Every structure is written in C-alpha cells, then in structure tokens.
Amino acid sequence: MINDYFKMFLIKSKKASTNQLYTKWGEELKEDKVLTEYPRPQLKRDSYIPLNGLWNYAITKERKLPNHYDGRILVPFSPESALSGVERQVMPKDYLWYERRIRVKEIKANSRLLLHFGAVDQYARVFVNRKKAGSHMGGYLPFSLDITDLLVKGKNEILVMVRDSSDTSYHSRGKQKLLRGGMFYTAQSGIWQSVWMEWVPDYYIENLRITPLYEESMVQLEITMNNQKEGPEVPVWIQVTEQERLILSNEDSGNKLLIPMPDFIPWSPENPHLYGLTVGVGEDRVESYFAMRKVEVKKDEKGIPRIFLNGKVYFHNGVLDQGYWPDGLYTAPSDEAMIYDILTMKKLGFNMLRKHIKVEPLRWYYHCDRLGMLVWQDMVNGGTSYNMLFLGYLPNFFPRVAERIKDNWYPFFSRRNEKGRQEWKEDLSGTIEHLYNSPSIVVWVPFNEGWGQFDSEEAVRLIKTMDSTRLIDQASGWFDQKGGDFKSIHNYFRKLHIVTEKRAVVLSEFAGFACPATGHMFSKNIYGYKIYRKREDLEKAVFKLYKEEMPALIEMGLSAAVFTQLSDVEEEINGLMTYDRKVLKVKKIPKL
Predict the structure, then answer these.
(1) pLDDT tens-digit profile of 420-448?
(2) Residues 482-521: pLDDT tens digits?
(3) Peptide bond preceding 76: is omega within 30 degrees of 0, i.e. cis?
(4) How far is CA 550 from CA 37, 489, 497, 545, 560, in A?
(5) 549: left (phi > 0), else alpha (psi -120 to 50), else beta?
(6) Rounded-to-integer distance, Cα 210 and Cα 311, Å
(7) Where are the beta strands (DSSP E) in 150-204?
(8) How far apart are CA 368 and CA 360, in angstroms?
(9) Residue range 374-399: average pLDDT?
C-alpha cells in the first residue's frame, strides 16, 4: 500500500497542475456571514445560535490535544477547500482538530442547549470544556448533542476531533478519492455543513414524520419527543396555513395524528404548492411544511409501464447533479448558489435532479420543494477499493453478462467486510429518515454502477418498510437484480432501443458530452465520453438528442432520462455549466 507521505507527494503534484476556480458567491463571501440561514427548514425554532465562521484548527499525527493551533478555518468549509482558508489535505492517519469559544450568559431553568452538526466527514468526537459530549460516525448525516450539563456560566470551549479514512476503508464516501482524477474528485474532510445551537424546553420535539395520504385527502403526522415517558395524553397543538392564510387550527393528543386536507392543491414542478405547518407540544413549538403529491408506476392507456405523478403520466426529464463546487468542494458558498443551480436547470426545461451519491444540506431540498424540482436521491456508496475492470469495462462491453451476475458475490463488489455492509444499511436507514419529509424526493437510488453494491433485493425490502410513498431505482446503471420499480439503464456509447417489461424503463445516465471552456478549466486534463471542441457543436448535439432521439425513445416506452451532467467537476467537463458556474454552455433545450 502506498504510504501517506507518498500519497501526499502525489496529491501536491496534482494540485500544482490545477487552476483554482471561484464562483461569484465564493468571491463575495464574508467571514462573518457564512450560510446564516436556519439549517433545518422543516423543524424550525425561534431560538437559533449560528456557529458558522472562524474556528481554530490543527492537523496532527497524534491523538492528544495539540499544544497550539495551526491557524483559523472558516466553518463549514472543509480544510481541503479554498474557502476554508486552509487548503490542506487531511490524510487517513491524521487528526483534525477544531476549537471555538462560546459565551453562555445564563443556563436557563427547565431548558436544554442542543449543539447541532449538519455533517462531519467521517468520524467526530465532540468535547465541551474538555469533557466528552458525544461522538458520531458517518460523513453525510446530521447529529445533535445535549451539552447543557457540561456548560458553565460565561466562557465555554467546544472542541471537535475528526478522523477521515476517505477511500482507504469501507465507509461511505461518494465520489471522494485521495488520488483524484477522471470521474472521482478531491477528497474532503471535517465539518462541511452548518453548526448551530438552540435552546429547547426539557420536554421537546425531536422529530416530525409527515406522510401525505393523497387518496384519502389527509396528512399523517408522527411526532417524536425526546422523552416518550410523558405519554400520549400531552396536548398537541397543530396549525396548517396556505400562503400565510390559516386553514386549520386544532388541539389533539397522541404522537400519531391525521390532518384532514379537503380540496387540497397537489404539488408538482409546475405548481410547487406547499402548506405551512406549526406544531406545539407542551412548551415547545416548531415550524414546518408539507405538500400533497403521489408518485407511482402503472400502465398507461397503451399498456406501457410509466411513472405517474398525481394520477397522470409524467416524464422525468432530469440532470445528474454531483453537488461539487470549485471553491467549497462539498459545501455550496451560499444559499443563492444552490438556488442558482436549481433555477438554471429549471429554466433549461428540466424537472428533475438526480442527486448523485451525496446527501445535501436540508436547505437544498427545501429549495427543490419550494421551486418545484423533482429529486432522485442516491445513497452514498462505500466499500473497499473498486475493481474498475469488473465494475466499469465488463458492464459496458458485455452488458448481458453483467445482468446475470448476482450482487451477493461480495468480493467482486468490494463488500467482503460484514461490518461495512451493516454500516451501509444503517446509513441507508438514516438517510431515508433524515430526508423523509421532503416532497420533492420521489425516488430512492440505493446503488450506482455496482459501486459497493450488495444484497440489493434486501435493500429494496428495507426501503419499502421505511417508506412506501416513493419509487426505488434498485441498481442504477448495471448489475440489474430485476427488482425495484425501474429497469435502469446507463448508456454513453451505443444506440439505445427500449424494450418494455413489468417495470418502467428509465435512462438514468446518458450523454456525457464534454466541452472545454477556456478560462474556466480546473485542469488541462479533461474527461468525458464524447468531446466537442466548440460550444456550437455541443449545442447541436444536445439539440438533436432532445429534438429527435428522445421523443422516439419516449414513444417506445422510456419514462425518465438523466443527462450527464449539471456542471463540470474538476477534470470531468461534461457539464451544462462550467465548474465555476460562470458559463452556461447550452442556452436552450427543446421541450419534450
């Protein structure tokens, strides 16, 4: 195995040959106003103490607390990113330390102070005043800690220790790779989503689970409290609003309630209608929202399985969205940056984004909810080092052979480790629970192109026990196990012919047209499936796809298509926009 020192040499050599790009939002970023919006729109309280901004940091080779800090880091940008102000790669044997002082004027009676982390990659251990507050494994899901009993009046210290094995272990990692290149990108570490605190009552709402019952014209609301011993008789106050107009106010009891929604307005990309929801239990009160929509696969009038939205055939015209930024890596520089990506794709005529093997901050899903953008949500892939000969070349050149391979052959899919398989299942459950309330999410995608794939039939069963309201793309691309709701195809190299079956047929990745844009390139090395040197030629190729080829495929039975991709990412320049989002390569796409 290559040791850390040699890897670091290779990483620095690669970095020396790259061009640091900035988005306009990164260029305008102010250290005292970093992602200031409330991070959790569907469980919002008035008490909000943001902790984004400058923290002390150190990177050490030893586990013990550093004697001094290396400098300041701008949270929540990872140390590998330009916006963090650090631009250093954290290696698997390193310890990354964060430190920040907070002032607590008073420790309120009958109240708790919760410390929230949106996401920390990969393992985090948190201390308050040098006493352990808690720990968390997993780089993509949030965690919260009750730090009340560790506080003192006046100055307090928050300390976070982070470890990140990146792609050297079986943990979920997405597209991150220490030796990036091609379709794998710069590895990032540490805190990469917002950090904040809030005061709550002793007895507080921990979670809401909101399920639209479309056919019954109702919403099911499940309330999880931090202490269920209080029992179901505690009064629950509910208020539903529509564009700030009160349409329902009710007092009830219990943790599972039905809210009647007669004459509701369905949610769709064309009319992303949201209802406001306020829930009060005891002294606690939270604001949320929901939408009424239904997604299913059933046969159309010709007997072809199609995707239906709210009872009507609805073609999902989508774009692959990696969620990488040249200046922030995993972290968008601002809310406006996330909104720009969504609205730009919507203006081009797309109605869906496939969020590719990454879990975004909750505000990204909120913007999809309110702006009207369907989301296919990938689970984050893991497993040990991938055999790309088996996972890449075999399915592309011998697709029929790949379709016969069972995904319980763990060694072929880099899934020997039982602990790693169990951890991925826990991540799957955590992701569904975390994103369950977002109406824009209509499809779960457990596996992509065999990367860390295993026992996908079991994964489908697990998803269905947790969420019966959405569709499942069991194995996007290849190694189809004949389950889920879709026959899912990736096609970059050959003419496609649709053969219908009992599942809907979707083209979950295609195109990959690369086009360089001078002055907006991360590297001289370029990666793509077909290269166009002139933007006019790219536009002609994309126009032909959507004007001539796509309508014929839809007529054959195609139910969805996902264009690769939203933006360039590092060497992979097959985006509709450049990596810095400053050039839109294709200005118009024919309407399907």
Answers:
(1) 999 999 999 999 999 999 999 999 999 99
(2) 999 999 999 998 888 899 999 999 999 999 999 999 999 9
(3) yes
(4) 40, 14, 11, 6, 10
(5) alpha
(6) 21
(7) 154-163, 176-177, 185-186, 190-191, 195-201
(8) 11
(9) 93
- Burial string for 152-171 (b: 16+ CB within 10 Å, else e) reads eeeebebbbbbbbbbbbbbb
d(CA 37, CA 44): 11
Q: Which residue has the tokens 């040699």?
A: 6
| 360's tokens | 């975004």
How far apart CA 564 and CA 584 sit, in angstroms, is 15
In degrees, rounded to 5, the angle at the alpha carbon of residue 578 between the alpha carbons of residues 478 and 522 is 90
Closest to 528 (Cα-Cα) out of 478, 489, 493, 480: 493
**For residue 1, is pLDDT > 50?**
no
Which one, of 490, 515, 525, 516, lies nearest residue 505 by Cα?
490
The CA distance from 321 to 326, in Å, is 14
**Per-residue pLDDT reduced to its tens digit, 355-364:** 999 999 999 9
- Positive or negative CA dihedral for 339, 345, 351, 353? negative
Q: Return phi, psi of residue 174, to 5°.
A: 65, -135
Phi, psi of 36 (to 5 degrees): -85, -10
The three-state DSSP-derived secondary structure of 85-124 is: CCCCCCCCCCEEEEEEEEEECCCCCCEEEEEEECCEECEE
